[in-house]
Amino acid sequence: MFPTVSSRAEKDCETQKQRQSLHDDAAKTWLKLEAGCGVAREEGRRKLTMHGKNGDDGGGEKSTTARK
């Protein structure tokens, strides 16, 4: 016969599983937030560039050299 696991050990195991689940959920949420911030930063940069901030007129670079 296998030895029985005490109710305290079962409870400790269940508590550990809950903690791990919460930790995993928090990690996933953090990654989503971090990714969202990166997207928002990039969108902000694009808008600043489109509106002529940071020394860029948003029209792209124009060549000043003469064509042959």
Explain this structure:
The chain has 68 residues and is mainly α. The chain is 65% helix and 0% strand. The protein has one helix and no strands.
Helix content: 55-70%
Could you name the ranges where pLDDT drops below 50 across 5 or more consecutive residues? none
Principal-axis shape: rod-shaped
Average predicted confidence as pLDDT: 77
Indicate the radius of gyration in whole angstroms: 28 Å
Beta-strand level of the residues, as a percent range? under 5%
Q: Which class do the helix and strand fractions yield?
A: mainly alpha
Number of alpha- plus pi-helical segments: 1
Total strands: 0
First CA to last CA: what distance?
Answer: 93 Å
Written as H for each helix and E for each strand, in order along the chain, the element string is: H
Biggest β-sheet description: none
Element layout with pairings:
Layout: H1 7-50
Task: State the gist of this model.
By secondary structure, the chain is an all-alpha fold. It has one helix spanning 7-50.
How would you describe this structure in keywords?
68 residues, mainly alpha
